[in-house]
Amino acid sequence: MGRVTERRKVIRIRDGAVSARPDTLVAEEPLEIRLNGKPLAITMRTPGDDFALAAGFLVSEGVLADAGDLQNIVYCAGATADGSNTYNVVDVRTTPGVELPDFTLERNVYTSSSCGLCGKASLDAVRTTTRWPIADTPPVRVTPELLASLPDRLRAAQRVFDRTGGLHAAALFTEGGELLDVREDVGRHNAVDKLVGRALKNGDLPLSRTVLLVSGRASFELAQKAVMAGIPVLAAVSAPSSLAVDLAAETGLTLVGFLRGSNMNVYAGEDRIALRAAAAQG
How far apart are CA 128 and CA 273, in angstroms? Predict the structure, then answer.
């Protein structure tokens, strides 16, 4: 199985002094996801939690909704011409009788850390495909102070980032601020898939009383994954895309961006944020 980090020689220049030394880099390798033996998608990821990543990906595709939908996940032996196992190909087998969707959210085989979908059709597809409409979930209320505390807690939990500086992270918190899980990956969407996949396997879907925090920006794809997992609050330390905001508004997702210190922008779903009356009117 691939390693999370690798070592490479680097020339360092510090205050005019030049030296050669090994440096720790985050590993990046392709993962092919097969569904019932048929190729479905390829994503560039950091090795580790591959089964959870595949399961979470299929939650966002509307294939899996419950641990009972999943028969098993295996690495494919003989993935290369010489019959060796590269641990870069997984096959997800659904339980007999599970109805497969027409993959209206399909990513056309290849995905990357910055990919996403676009257009009104994509908004409609997510809204109509999700099994747990956020507007129907029990009310969740979080304070700005609680949200402001989450990035530092996420950063403190990023073990591999401290060694490489090259990983994104995603974390699940309860509405009271308890850290439930954190995953790292070279791609933000992969980190979220790993969280959701682990929740699926633990029988915790829908994640209707949680807050999802992601490093970097909030793309349409991340908003989509939150909605498909029933997560009511998505917060990002950087900017959201316009389509992510549109999706949040259409589905009832609370979307927070530029979460830095005590500052943040609430782009949609402000009813879940316990704002002071004076601030809300200003």
Answer: 26
Task: List the end-to-end C-alpha distance of the chain, in Å, as a whole number.
Answer: 54
The type of residue at 114 is S
Specify the 3-state DSSP secondary structure of 118: coil
* Domain regions of the chain by residue span: 135-281
**pTM of this prediction?**
0.85
Mean pLDDT of the chain: 84
Q: Given pLDDT bands bounded at 50, 70 and 90, which one contains residue 160? A: low
Domain 135-281: give its CATH code.
Answer: 3.40.140.10
Tokens of 90: 């997984």
In the sheet with 263-268, reading across from the earlier edge strand, the strands are: 179-185, 168-174, 210-214, 233-236, 254-260, 263-268
Q: Which of 245, 105, 114 is nearest to 189 (CA)?
A: 114
Tokens of 158: 């990023």
What ranges in the chain are assigned the alpha helix state H? 50-60, 120-129, 144-157, 161-164, 188-201, 220-228, 242-251, 277-281
Cα torsion through 198, 203, 205, 207, rounded to 10: -70
CA atoms within 13 A on the CB side of 108: 4
- How many angstroms separate the CA atoms of 280 and 252, rounded? 19
Rounded to the nearest 10 degrees, how much is the dihedral formed by the CA atoms of 257, 263, 266, 269?
110
Q: Give me 185's structure tokens.
A: 């990956």
Task: Report the relative pairing of strands 263-268 and 254-260 from DSSP bridges.
Answer: antiparallel
Check pLDDT > 70 for residue 278: no
Catalytic pick among 25, 115, 180, 249: 115
The pLDDT assigned to 82 comes to 73
Active site residue 115: yes
